[in-house]
């Protein structure tokens, strides 16, 4: 499981609760202010813990805490998108998923947590890159399954390589979020997703009844 | 011109040279260590200037300096890509451009400067978002011109909206760079660009002679 990969020394239920409180506080700060502006002091203040407590659970400090937040936010994104991702087997389902992604990213605006974290956290080094690469793979695999199901249902181009197409879709979302973070506009996210779905889905597929 | 948008108080040639030295030092630090890890102290040390000098040229500090670096790096990217962007009017030219983008991003690895900066700088607020939105628009416009030229040459699908397709291509590159920064791999950049070009270019176009 992702959430425990970077768990540090958590021996008791109370310890686990404190660790969780620190991670939730960091996630909330990052959502409100962004990764760059969030300091460990902010996280201590918000979680009601001291620096020494924080370093007990996160001996490698900021990098390790950001990884834990990434895992938390990734879990939330997969929980949110799960119902849509699991049912990706028709043109209608892809349209719903596309609308959900655009709406979610637009509503969360410049602090779309997972987009920010995937972009920031991987830069810390090989350990962080392993975690973000896992997230990208997990996300891509879920989309690949949807592409294969839609191909099997006769509503997606069977000539497309499902895994490579899934990689392009993940990249489109990540790029759209990146432009959203930079410019405040979700137009590129929409254009890129529509472009992918236009290529993926068969225009002349029969309507489902 | 972009380079002068955030120029601060530069009254003399010597002042302009000092300002430029600070910006180049910041750009070099960011290329080597990333935006997150670069401090104003690092920039002062590398450029041989003092903090008070730095704040003379960049009264708004870190944000303003990052904007200046973004403009510098954007100018370099457009200088590098200019010859390829200007000639985008055939399938062969798109293939060359695609290879150049992938090679450049792969070689620069996790510190691809413009990708990093577009992702980071826009988060500082409306002023920074204006600069990054301008860069995205300029880049998208160059690609749109190429799409239109390729459509006119009969080698790209004439049914595609050139501007919206250009938005999708820009988003694919930005997403590919974002995943490269997070995971260290350029595979997603390649997959996303190939997916865009597969949709854009006509497979049965006559070979150029």
UniProtKB/TrEMBL annotation, chains A, B:
<dbReference type="InterPro" id="IPR011075">
    <property type="entry name" value="TetR_C"/>
</dbReference>
<feature type="domain" description="HTH tetR-type">
    <location>
        <begin position="16"/>
        <end position="76"/>
    </location>
</feature>
<dbReference type="InterPro" id="IPR009057">
    <property type="entry name" value="Homeodomain-like_sf"/>
</dbReference>
<dbReference type="Pfam" id="PF00440">
    <property type="entry name" value="TetR_N"/>
</dbReference>
<keyword id="KW-0238">DNA-binding</keyword>
<keyword id="KW-0805">Transcription regulation</keyword>
<keyword id="KW-0804">Transcription</keyword>
<dbReference type="InterPro" id="IPR001647">
    <property type="entry name" value="HTH_TetR"/>
</dbReference>
<dbReference type="GO" id="GO:0003677">
    <property type="term" value="F:DNA binding"/>
</dbReference>
<dbReference type="InterPro" id="IPR036271">
    <property type="entry name" value="Tet_transcr_reg_TetR-rel_C_sf"/>
</dbReference>
<feature type="DNA-binding region" description="H-T-H motif">
    <location>
        <begin position="39"/>
        <end position="58"/>
    </location>
</feature>
<dbReference type="Pfam" id="PF16925">
    <property type="entry name" value="TetR_C_13"/>
</dbReference>
<protein>
    <submittedName>
        <fullName>TetR family transcriptional regulator</fullName>
    </submittedName>
</protein>
């Amino acid at each position: 499981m992702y959430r425990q990969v970077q768990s540090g020394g958590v021996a008791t239920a109370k310890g686990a609760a404190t660790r969780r409180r620190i991670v939730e506080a960091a996630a909330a700060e990052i959502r409100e202010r962004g990764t760059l502006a969030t300091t460990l002091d902010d996280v201590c203040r918000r979680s009601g813990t001291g620096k020494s407590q924080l370093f007990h659970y996160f001996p490698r400090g900021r990098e390790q805490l950001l990884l834990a937040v990434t895992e938390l936010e990734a879990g939330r994104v997969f929980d949110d998108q799960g119902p849509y991702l699991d049912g990706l087997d028709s043109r209608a389902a892809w349209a719903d998923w596309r609308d959900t992604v655009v709406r979610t990213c637009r509503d969360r605006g410049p602090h779309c947590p997972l987009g920010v974290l995937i972009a920031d956290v991987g830069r810390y080094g090989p350990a962080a890159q392993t975690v973000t690469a896992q997230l990208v793979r997990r996300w891509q695999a879920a989309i690949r399954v949807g592409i294969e199901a839609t191909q099997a249902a006769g509503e997606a181009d069977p000539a497309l390589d499902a895994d490579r197409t899934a990689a392009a879709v993940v990249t489109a979302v990540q790029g759209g979020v990146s432009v959203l973070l930079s410019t405040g506009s979700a137009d590129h996210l929409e254009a890129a997703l529509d472009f992918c779905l236009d290529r993926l889905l068969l225009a002349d597929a029969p309507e489902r009844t």
